[in-house]
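ASSEMBLY PREDICTION REQUEST
Request ID: AP-0331
Submitted by: J.K., bench scientist
Number of chains: two
Total residues: 1183
Priority: normal
Notes: Please return the full assembly, not individual chains.
Input sequences:
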Amino acid sequence: MLIIGVDTGGTFTDFIWQDGEEQGEYKLLSTPQNPAEAVLAGLRHIAGERPYQLIHGSTVATNALLEKKGARTALITNRGFEDVIEIARQNRPELYQLQVVKNPPLVPSKYRFGLPGRVDQSGAIIEELDEATLGPLLEELNAAKIESIAVSLLFSFSNPEHELLVGKSLQSLKLPMSLSHQTLAEFREYERTSTTLINAYVAPKMERYLGELEAEVGPNSFRIMQSNGGSISAKTARRESVRTILSGPAGGAVGAATIGRQSGQDKLISFDMGGTSTDVSLIDGELPLTTESTIAGYPVKVPMIDIHTVGAGGGSIARLDRGGSLQVGPQSAGADPGPICYGKGQELTVTDANLFLGRLIPDRFLGGGMALEATKVGLSMRTFAAEMDLEATELAEGILAVANTTMERAIKKISVEKGFDPREFCLFSFGGAGGMHAVDLARLLQIPKVMIPTAPGILSACGMLFADVIKDYSQTVMLGQEEAAPARLKGLLHPLERQAERDLQLEGVPQDRIELQPLLDMRYCGQSFELMVPLSDDFIAGFHQKHAQVYGYSNPHKPTEVVNLRLRAFGRPPRLAAQEQPAGGTVPEQQAQLGTSSAVFSGHAFETAIFERSSLKPGNQIQGPAILVEYSSTIVLPPDCRAVVDPYGHLLIDLQGVAS
Amino acid sequence: MKVNPILLQVFRNRFVAIAEEMGVTLGRTSFSPNIKERRDYSCALFDARGDMIAQAAHIPVHLGSMPLSVKAAIAAVPMVAGDMVMLNDPFCGGTHLPDITLVAPVYLDASENPVFFVANRAHHSDVGGMTPGSMPVSTSIFQEGLIIPPTKLVEQGKIDRKLFDFLLRNVRTPQEREGDFAAQIMANLTGVDRCQQLIAKYGMQEVNLYAAHLNDYAERMMRQTIAGIPDGLYQFEDSLDSDGFSDQEVPLKLCLEINQDQAHLDFSDCADQVTGSVNAVYAITLSAVLYCFRCLIEEDVPTNAGIARPLQITTRPGSLVDARFPAAVAGGNVETSQRIVDLVLGALAKAIPARIPAASQGSMNNTSIGGLDPRSGQPFSYYETLAGGCGADAAQQGASAVHSHMTNTLNTPIEALEYAYPFRVTEYSVRHDSGGAGKQRGGDGLIREIELLAEAEVTVLSERRSTAPYGLLGGEPGKPGLNQVIRKAGSESLPGKFTTRLKPGERLRIETPGGGGWGKKEK
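STATUS: Completed
Returned structure:
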């Protein structure tokens, strides 16, 4: 069976396909006005008349939110609480700014409607919802030409009666409807409302987009990537659009985890350095999940792969601030005008510094498809350096050093600050610029090993091919330690399990491939953040242990509480075994060697060998300094490190025993 | 001495990263929601003299007060490796009693004296005193809780258990305090370790050199910023609603002089210190001034000793903004600090009207509720601050229902509140039309109405209930706030600062002030 993974990106739409015998890649320029165009063109090119399975990472929902171009949405709340979405958590984004700029709510005040009725924390109805109030509401929604509806009532996760009643009464409008207890059955009204509202806000756009694709894809299986690292059917994605936001980076993390596992590396720090930003994620055997994501300033509480982004990339601009300190980023030259070496740019960037130091080979960029202007970079670098009373190479290495400290901090945030020691991990580097910085960065963090997969430029699409079907369920229960016996929790979990099995069968997963993973969100009584632990017979011990790992201490005498029940339901597709490539000797073949060039490391110029990566064979060893070029990325091996090609073609760089 | 712009930036990142990592450790390991969820804490590192190198602050009110507490600790107690000194004495390095600072020296193997210090400060939700939450309407420091002068809590790596037990016996929620102290200790250990690693990597000389360069850097940025303000004398007057004991307004006055790249702020004409708990010690005044000037710098500069150098501050000992022992100070940190910001910005608005916003709500609306929870039979103690309206400026309207200036803490979600306390929230909304009119409207305050489901003692410390947040250049003032109790018999307005008892079914309704408008509204 032909399986195709498609990842829509800002510049390119990446395709990867597999048919059991062969595997291939394909790239097309994205079509931002209508992303479906590029997707459909690629599908026709790859599949022709053959049947296929499609797994797609779409940016439609993400962009609708980022560009605030979602539907005209109505928000229905309890009366007196219409402004919860506007008040948010009452804090401001920047501490030292005289004028506060608050993120405006996605729904203006005039489209927010309050209803009588109130449920308390136990689920008891303490004020009835009068159905008579719903008639006029229906008319108001009609008159306002509302396109999508979000309903979020207090404690609806304890008793959904009122939300269901509202939903039923408004059915005749035939509009997409998001009820908060269905989108996210968890307490904390602002975050639940925000998540539900985003779902409603992006749903109509997603509906149109998926409709257009489905018309073409026809009877072929069509799955959509989610931010939790799994895929769902396009049908489900229409209802749960919020779960598809930021699915591209999630694809990258799934790709990293899968490839790492194949090669025996299951403790990874994934490092995806692109043109304007860098994504990092820590994979300790399994994909890291968070329920505390914020997108464009709005909380999204559904479980997502925990990815941290910083504004440092190849296009980050270097400049001297007025206090005399060298800043690199977060401003980026982007693709247009781009770095100086692309021809149009005026400001020095990280990419220019790499070029100046000889770490980027001007006539090998994009397989030689784009010539880089080295002369112009040299001139700018020398002028700028003279202003600072520095040598040009000193400045170029300085630009890289400053960018590297930004990325180092990003990695510390996801490792050290969460109780992980980066020295126990392997740095898994991908993205266009990652390979030029990975070794330096690993040294800063004392990470002993770097891995760079084959085709590092299309890892996200690749991850989509590997993704399981995953559905997440949750329910706030708020039970004290005495009330939370494992048997009771398992009882409470039953309805979620039944729902999950039903849903996965509808997704086309056979019963024997369904795997259910029950989890708990727990905390010590009085705390206001929860930790996720597996539901086992001694889950309390598991919680203390996890608390000690993440926070550095635990207190087994302190009572705990179970805040949420969680269920992750997996449909595991049959694993495609990775294919070993024919091995070569320790010395790369002649045709892989493209000659030598001069590159600067720590102030010294080295005669540096250049290799064509696609001509390397498993078993080949390369001693730094060396540069490996391939179509969409460049890998730099500084002196004193050694790389070896593993049986699958991935590059492993060993830094152990090498002083930083 | 030549400063390398690359190393300057690299060291800046490294120093800030240490302070931030301490902050993450403290936030993550602390026990009480006040520290964890409301992020009422700061962490910083200091050179051997106690000059601040970098700070990770979530609360601007700690800006100027952290350095003073570290200097007080250094002066009072010699510290050997592994020691940690705690303090909260407002008259010796502290601000108000709930804010407890913990200072630790950084030694190198070979060093005779500390080469650096690290410190963190956290707001503890109870330190004893006359009302739960230790934010009382008091008349003397002795009613506000346990006073801790600079004292060793940790000696060569070991907690002084006798001292600690003594301390814990004097607070209402000892278990929580113990957890929070443990977090503060962990944060300092992290800071000490990271400083040592940094020195091991770069050498003491270079680390010290760049610590000094970074202070010079921040100083340069501040001087350039002040140089952009026209020279002159700018005066501004305002007043506090009251001290909570009399109805009398308490006058505040500032004379600001800008002279090239320096600013002199003279607070000598502010009123004498008062009976109630709104007195501010000098550290608070310093913090408020630093906050205002820090905001004027458009770039992201490190907050360190350098930014304070171009600023000269004069206060009169025994005045409201430089209170002396044994003044009551619980509210000075939260309320008066906001009003000092109003004063400084009011004066700056005369110099650079296009850049300065009208007055924001000028209060934190501190609300404490304590009693016995009938559901568990256990005592409960709840403390929260409420957002309000922001002042408008030349470029835009004021933001609504958001924390301004000296605080930035999160709210407690309604659903979290109702799980944890015998309360029912009956309204949480934007207080529409409370912002001052103008060419640009001031932001609106908010309304929080809570029905008590058990008998409870309620204390509110708030400002701008009788005086209004001012507008600028013809903009109208924002509406003052309103504190109400709604009983069966009807509703009753209460003053800005009060303590009362409520019965089940009765409601507390707080409407927070709106921000001032900017510019005359065109007809």
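REVIEWER COMMENTS: Residues 357-523 of chain B form one domain.
SIGN-OFF: pending second reviewer
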